[in-house]
Amino acid sequence: MTVAEAKREADALGRLLNPKQRLWAENYLLTGNATEAAIAAGYAAKNATVQGSKLKSTPKIAEYLAARETQLFAEMGINEGWVGRRFAEIYDRCMQATPHMVWDSEARALVPDGTWVFDARGANAALTALGKTLGMFKPSEDPETTGQTIEEWLEKQKRESAP
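Predicted structure:
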């Protein structure tokens, strides 16, 4: 979505709100705090927590917030491609082998012990996030795999690959 398209959509949704609701939404986008945004928009401080919660869960306001976030991300150049590239960069960095360091009391310093390590947990997290962003993890439609434990699935794979 282009910046202009995102702005048009947000503006159209913003016209559905009254000025106080729009002011609350803009303050909420700035602070991320519904209570602070309610106070800044002119709602009574004693009711601000309840009012902020109500505003946040009002469908037309929630739609406006989502549209404004999309607009802001578009203005910053953040889109699915950008996110995907960042996840790929994180994966690549996590997969870079680095020497495992141990303390050498004689040298009084960390020294390589001859082994290499990489951040497997970070790499897996980046791949998982990238896969989710790309919609790769959809529930299986295969009735044979639905409801199987991993052990049952592995056993089935063994049987099918056996000569």
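Summary: The chain has two domains: 3-77, 79-158.
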